[in-house]
Amino acid sequence: KAALGRTKGPLMKVAQFLSTIPDLLPPELAAELAGLQSGAPAMGWPFVRRRMRAELGEDWESKFASFSREAAAAASLGQVHRAIALDGRALACKLQYPEMASAMESDLAQFRSILALVKRYGKFIDPSAIGEEIADRLREELDYAREAKHLALYRAMLAPYPDISVPVPLGDLSTKRLLTMTWLDGAPLRDFQDAPQAQRNRIAVLLFRAWWTPFGQYGVIHGDPHLGNYTLAADGARLNLLDFGCVRIFPPRFVEGVLKLREALATEDIAGIEDAYTHWGFRDLKREQIEALSIWARFMFAPLLDRRVRKMAEGVKPGEYGRREFWRMRQQLVEHGRVAIPREFVFMDRAAIGLGAAFLRLGAELNFAELFDEAVAGFSVEAMARRQDTALAAAGL
């Protein structure tokens, strides 16, 4: 944990993600790495002072009523300091670590080398597009001006939900390496894993809507939905969304593929399943490959097909969440030929795993299928395209 915390950058983000997947790592290791989500080692005051001067000028301190020297949180790409605006508002100042762009490119070069070996020797997937997708998303995370636009986008998409809060970005106090936004008080969701069932269910409903509504109505997902990126307001009535660096925008046709796959899985329509995979960007799949991919798809879609109150995973022994299905899929693909993973599939699958893990951590018992119906109500490719164009243009994206 200490070594990864000092390293920062993509390697630390991998460790963060691994800690969110239930049963992937030994509990003691997962608990330690989970601390990297918001409690990584912070840079000291000399760095903060130099960077703030570089971003806002020599008189940067005069632009705040106060600015805390100690970091309130630190993660893989930057750290957050509390401040008070001249108008009295509580602020969060997210400051990027030094030399992150060069560190990112160095780590990505090593990552591409690993993927080249996987492509050469791997027997069940062709990862070519995976590297391209991850590289593009990570580079976007370094652009805090883009993240400020993500904030504006999410504030618009979630405006109908007063119980979900998104910070307000302050453009005059932000740059490409500094993002200043309003501070949202709240307790980490990890603190509620032993709360009464009704409270955990309520948190999970808000979490579901905060993630699935932007996807179902606008084709937008938060690509990193672990518990560390959310807090619950002090009054317990509002969910706070905190980090918007990793956001993926999909064409409406991809969203249509998700709905088509859900329907086809429910009716065991093989042709419909193949059509859905085509919407996602899979090409030239054989019937055996379709059947292999559907092992994982049925596992991931199970809560959205089961129209009753249930947990995210049922009938699964501790330590076996998703493993059986993954290895069955892998074995069949090794036997029948590997598949090329489409770019747009990468973060959708990664985010779905992270979101499912959050529901498991909370022990939520919900009618997930009913909530999904609500999130995608009124879907059509044409309507989503209009909504998406309008929302992206308003946010400057």
Could you give the topology of this structure?
Blueprint: H1 2-7, H2 9-20, H3 27-34, H4 45-56, E1 64-74, E2 78-85, E3 90-96, H5 100-121, E4 125-126, H6 128-141, H7 144-157, E5 164-165, E6 178-182, E7 187-188, H8 197-218, E8 220-222, E9 230-232, E10 239-241, E11 247-249, H9 252-267, H10 270-280, H11 287-305, H12 323-336, E12 339-340, H13 343-362, H14 368-375, H15 381-395
Parallel strand pairs: 4-12, 5-10
Antiparallel strand pairs: 1-2, 2-3, 3-6, 7-9, 8-11, 9-10
Helix pairs in contact: 2-3, 5-6, 6-13, 7-15, 8-13, 8-14, 9-10, 9-11, 9-15, 11-12
Percent helix: 40-55%
Low-confidence runs: none
Instruction: Report the end-to-end length measured between terminal Cα atoms.
Output: 36 Å
Helix/sheet category: alpha+beta
Biggest sheet character: 4 strands, antiparallel
H/I helix tally: 15
Determine Rg (CA atoms, Å): 21 Å
Listing every helix as H and every strand as E from the N terminus to the C terminus, the arrangement reads HHHHEEEHEHHEEEHEEEEHHHHEHHH
Number of strands: 12
Q: Characterize the overall form.
A: globular
- Spatial order of the strands forming the largest sheet: 1-2-3-6
Please, what is the average pLDDT?
Answer: 88
- Estimate the strand proportion: 5-15%
In short:
Helix content is 54%, strand content 13%. With 397 residues, it is α+β, with helices and mostly antiparallel strands. The longest helix is centred in the first third of the chain and has 22 residues, at 100-121.
